[in-house]
Amino acid sequence: MATMSREFLNPPPEASRTFALSELMVRPRWRKTGASRLLHHSLLADRDEDLTALCVDVTHPKVQALHKSWSYREVGEQQPFADSPLFAVMLAELPLPD
What we know:
Blueprint: H1 2-6, E1 18-20, H2 35-45, E2 51-57, H3 61-69, E3 73-78, E4 87-93
Parallel strand pairs: 1-2
Antiparallel strand pairs: 2-4, 3-4
Protein name: N-acetyltransferase domain-containing protein
InterPro entries: Acyl_CoA_acyltransferase
Organism: Streptomyces carminius
């Protein structure tokens, strides 16, 4: 994921260490309570990498918008397998702003 996320950037960022975030979900009863932001930001708070990357199914624009509100930007799209969904590749610089 780390190398893959930077292949979309030209020129690639000088910051080279990337933390790949995958499959962080919040149970339905905890959605819209701030729990996902708290979990996400807590997970990344003490990371020593320069960047964080994740993929979001493009059929979930609300999830993409949520990550954009957390300082991610879409840098490309990827479909890892012929029968898999199309994913938006998103990247953010660490540390995240508060």
